[in-house]
Structures are given as C-alpha cells and as structure tokens.
Amino acid sequence: MLARAPVPLLVVFFVFINAAVFIPQPVSADLKLGFYQSTCPQAETIVRQLVQKRFNTDKSVTAALLRMHFHDCFIKGCDASILIDSTSQKQSEKAAGPNFTVREFDLIDQIKTALEAACPSRVSCADVIALATRDAVALAGGPNYPLPTGRLDSLTSDVNDVNLPGPTMPVSLAFIQFFEPKGFTLSEMVTLLGAHTVGVAHCAFFQDRISNFQGSGKPDPAMDPALAGTLRKTCSASNNPTAFLDQNTSFAVDASFYRELTVKRGVMQIDQELATDPSTSKMVSSLARNESGFRQSFAAAMVKMGSLVGKGGQVRKSCRVFNPKSPVGGGARPPVASPRRPPVPNPHRPAVSPRPPVSKPRSPVVSRGAPPPKSGGKKNVPKKTHKKSTSPRRKGSKKPAKGHHSHQKKKHRKGH
C-alpha cells in the first residue's frame, strides 16, 4: 500500500490568464544544459537522490510533480510562483481552486534545503521543480531527457492569475485558447496531455459520463460500457473518491494512455475527445502504436514547456517566500551565476603580446608639515615647526596684533 493516496492530476494544462493573454517566450538565452556545472556541480545529483527516496515510498509522486510543473509553467512561465504561500495581505496562486490538491510542496522544500546547504543562493526553486519532475518521469519508466536550467523565481504570485475551465472543454477550443498562444503545435498538445498516463481524478469531474451524460440519463456512448460500470462502483462511495486516468498502467509514463483512448477507455471527456476529434484522432492512433515515438515526443514537449519563462526574477532562499528587497530585476541573474567565460581568440587576428606595465616614477615621501624638497644634492632635514590651525577663519575675525606671537615666544623661552 502506498504511503499516500494519489491526488488528482486533473486537466493539468487548462490554466488561463484572466486579463490579457500572456505569451512567454519559448526559448530563453539564460537556459542552458549544465547551467550549474561551475556554481553548484552537485545540484542535479542532490535533486535526483531526494526524488528517488520519495519515489521508493510513494510512486504517485510522479503525477504530483507533473501536475505542479504544468500548473506553474502555464500561468506566467516556469517561475515557481505556485510555491509562494499566501499572506494576510495577498493570496497567492496556491489559494486558487485548481491548486487546492497540488502537493509535494514538502519535497520541494527538502530539496531546496539540501541545495542551500551545499550551494547557498545558487539553484532556483523553478529549476528544482523542473529537475524533480524530469527525474520522477524517468523513475516511472518515462524518458530521462536532458533539461536546460537557469530559470529564475518569480517576484509575484496572484490568485487571480489562475483560472481553470471544466474538464469538458472541446479539444479544438483548448488548443486555440490555451496551447497555441504559448507556441505549441496541435501535436505537442496531444503529447503533453499524455501526462494523464499517471494520476487520478475525482469522480465529481466525470460523474455525468458514467450515469447521466448531457442529461440523457445514460452513460456517455463514447465510453466503454465495462469501464462505465467499473467507475460507477468506484464512485458509489460518498466521499468523492478518485479513479486512475490510465486504467491499464496507472503508475507508468508510457503510451498505454493512448491505447486506452482508442478503445473508449478514457476517463476524462477531454482525454477521450482526443481520439474522436478529426484534428487529433490520427495523432492518438500513431502514438498508441509507437512507444519509442511517444517517448521522444514527450521528452521534446516537456523541454519546450519547461522553457516558458517570464522576465525578471530572483533565486529565493526559501521557495515559499520572496527574498526581501531583491536586488535582481529585469531578467538579470543574481551575482551567483556562472563566471564569465574567457574571450575566444580570433584566428584571423595576429596575436599581440601584452604590454608590460608602465612604471610611474615614485614621488619622494614627504612627511606632513615638512617643506618641499630643495633642488640639489644636499639632504633636506625638515625643521621643527608649529602646526598651524587648519580650521577656517571666521568671517569678521581680526588678525592677531603684530608682535603677539613673538611676545608669547619670548615669555615661553624665559620660563623654560
């Protein structure tokens, strides 16, 4: 028995912006393979070890991290805005309904704590999510894809940015309103929805399909009757139970999800429509027959999704709160980034020997109060003089009377 009950991986991609459509750039110049090679070479190893430890006791961690990663990236880019805790002044993305059942925040905290101990202020929380998801996918039998890193953590997190439509949205509308504006092709949308090969959904989100589809009093004709009967038994409990989205290999990242769709065994309506919509049905059939093709397509789509980044950010010390008075802005990386590479020599330009440093003649050291050195060969011996006051003379003050200083000197000598 698993240590934790699986939590829904429900329509993970359908997150909208309430205001103007946000179109993050699919490629960032800051992202590159091995970004932490010089600043924190053990970063990816630390992430992998802690994800492995969690996976050994709870295989549903793959679905949970996939869901977290998607919900993060599809708001304003992969910037860890989903990790910020709400405050009494402002509700963060965590407070949005679609994110109520997002979990594994504690795993992200554990990874970040270990990274801070090894390399303080080096690895962003956004990269932690992306790397942990990649490793969890590989542990579940999916592709272990090379992942560029160098993401920054967001400076904002607003509950109002999160909006999740119902799971009955038509495939064509989902593509036009959601995937296409972010630069994804229709084929990439079908591939990314393959993440539903792991995870579960609450019965409330597909109840009508198994009993009263569109008010007909009958199950959805697009669902296998045997599956509908099984789901009715599962959902007869009063506590809104869950059902696996892939009834065949529920904890494996593979092409089984598409094979289930071809025989009407998709649990969610949006999933099943992939196999019936004329624009996507052939893609589903192709992925169902080609396991290696799915692995390659899924890896490429995940890397592309992980490259959705916004502008500006920071590297948080704690993933749950913003850094106080962050010095980073406008997309700049903090001073913890990799050191600059040495300039590449130009083969068409002859090498020039560096000029030797020009030595400047040293001026003689003169003690404060000594007269300037005389020209000539005689050695100057500074005379003892009384130090004059450097304070400015007050306006209107009179000069001392003539002979005043000589009088004081004579008196001093006489007494001495």
UniProtKB/TrEMBL annotation:
InterPro entries according to UniProt: Haem_peroxidase, Haem_peroxidase_sf, Peroxidase_pln, Peroxidases_AS, Peroxidases_heam-ligand_BS, Secretory_peroxidase
Segments of skewed composition (Basic residues): 376-416
Signal peptide: 1-29
PROSITE patterns, per the entry: PEROXIDASE_1, PEROXIDASE_2, PEROXIDASE_4
Entry annotated with the keyword Metal-binding: yes
Cofactor note (record): Binds 1 heme b (iron(II)-protoporphyrin IX) group per subunit. Binds 2 calcium ions per subunit.
Intrachain S-S bonds: C40-C119, C73-C78, C125-C319, C203-C235
Subcellular location: Secreted
Cofactor: heme b; Ca(2+)
GO molecular function (one): metal ion binding
Positions contributing to heme b binding: H196
Keyword set, alphabetical order: Calcium, Disulfide bond, Heme, Hydrogen peroxide, Iron, Metal-binding, Oxidoreductase, Peroxidase, Secreted, Signal
Enzyme class, UniProt record, top EC level: oxidoreductase
Annotated binding of substrate, by residue: P165
Family to which this protein belongs: Belongs to the peroxidase family. Ascorbate peroxidase subfamily.
Functional summary from the UniProt entry: Removal of H(2)O(2), oxidation of toxic reductants, biosynthesis and degradation of lignin, suberization, auxin catabolism, response to environmental stresses such as wounding, pathogen attack and oxidative stress. These functions might be dependent on each isozyme/isoform in each plant tissue.
Protein name per UniProt: Peroxidase
UniProt organism field: Linum trigynum
